UniProtKB/TrEMBL annotation:
Descriptive protein name: N-(5'-phosphoribosyl)anthranilate isomerase
Keywords linked to the UniProt accession: Amino-acid biosynthesis, Aromatic amino acid biosynthesis, Isomerase, Tryptophan biosynthesis
CDD domains xrefs: PRAI (cd00405)
Molecular function GO labels: isomerase activity
Keyword Amino-acid biosynthesis: yes
Family per similarity comment: Belongs to the TrpF family.
EC number: 5.3.1.24
PANTHER family hit by this protein: N-(5'-PHOSPHORIBOSYL)ANTHRANILATE ISOMERASE (PTHR42894)
Keyword Isomerase among UniProt keywords: yes
InterPro entries: Aldolase_TIM, PRAI_dom, RibuloseP-bd_barrel, TrpF_fam
Catalyzed reactions: N-(5-phospho-beta-D-ribosyl)anthranilate = 1-(2-carboxyphenylamino)-1-deoxy-D-ribulose 5-phosphate
Record-linked SUPFAM superfamilies: Ribulose-phoshate binding barrel
Domain N-(5'phosphoribosyl) anthranilate isomerase (PRAI): from-to ranges: 7-201
Length: 207
C-alpha cells in the first residue's frame, strides 16, 4: 500500500501548526471563510506560514470567494495549494498558478464519479460529508461504501475522521490522503496536541 498523507485543517495558531508539523503531518489547512469558527485573518495566516519548518504544505481553504479575494490573499500569504470548498465551478478554481483540489460533499444520491469528472484539472478531490447549509467541518462522517472503487483523481478523505476510525477509513477507502479538523480539537479552532500527534501516528501505522 502506498504512503497515505495527512492534513491537519482549521489551524488558527502558530503553536498548533508547529505541533502538526513536528508530529509529521504533510500539510496544514488555513480557512479563509469568515463564517467558519476556524477562520484566520491574513495576519494570522502569515504568522503561521512563517513559523513552519520546510516541507510542510500550506493549503488555503476558500468557500465561494471571488477571484479578487483569492488573489488578494495569495499576494499576502505564500500558500502552496488551494482548496475550494463551496459551489465553485471548474473555471472558478483555475488560473491562480497553484495546484488546487475541489471538495465535494457526499450525501447519498449523487454520482460521485461524474462530479469528479467535471474537475479535470484538479490535482485531487476531497470528499466530505453533506450537511445542508454547512460547507464543511461538520465532524460527521459519511458512508464510505458510497465511494466508487476507482476514481480518476487522487482522493483526500474528510468528514468525521478521528483517532478511533482513521485506520479503518484507510483500510476501507485507501485514499491518497486524510484530512482532519474537528477530530483533533480541544475546541473549535484550537487543536489538542495529543490528539494531533496520535492521529498522525495512526495514519502512519496504518500503512
Amino acid at each position: 500500500m502506498s504512503v497515505v498523507r495527512s492534513k491537519i485543517c482549521g489551524i488558527t495558531r502558530v503553536e498548533d501548526a508547529l505541533v502538526a508539523a513536528h508530529a509529521g503531518a504533510d500539510a496544514i489547512g488555513l480557512v479563509f471563510y469568515p463564517k467558519s469558527p476556524r477562520a484566520v485573518t491574513v495576519q494570522q495566516a502569515r504568522e503561521i506560514v512563517a513559523a513552519l519548518p520546510p516541507f510542510v504544505t500550506t493549503v488555503g481553504l476558500f468557500v465561494n470567494a471571488s477571484r479578487g479575494e483569492v488573489n488578494e490573499i495569495l499576494d499576502a500569504v505564500p500558500l502552496d495549494v488551494l482548496q475550494f470548498h463551496g459551489d465553485e465551478t471548474p473555471v472558478d478554481c483555475e488560473g491562480f498558478r497553484r495546484p488546487w483540489f475541489k471538495a465535494l460533499r457526499v450525501g447519498g444520491d449523487e454520482d460521485i464519479a461524474a462530479q469528479i469528472a467535471r474537475y479535470a484539472n484538479a490535482s485531487g478531490i476531497l470528499l466530505d460529508t453533506f450537511v445542508a447549509g454547512v460547507p464543511g467541518g461538520t465532524g460527521e462522517r459519511f458512508d464510505w461504501s458510497l465511494i466508487p472503487p476507482t476514481l480518476a483523481k487522487p482522493l483526500i478523505l474528510a468528514g468525521g475522521l478521528t483517532i478511533d476510525n482513521v485506520q479503518q477509513a484507510i483500510a476501507q477507502v485507501r485514499p491518497y490522503a486524510v484530512d482532519v479538523s474537528g477530530g483533533v480539537e480541544a475546541s473549535k479552532g484550537i487543536k489538542d496536541a495529543s490528539k494531533v500527534q496520535a492521529f498522525v501516528r495512526s495514519v502512519r501505522s496504518a500503512m
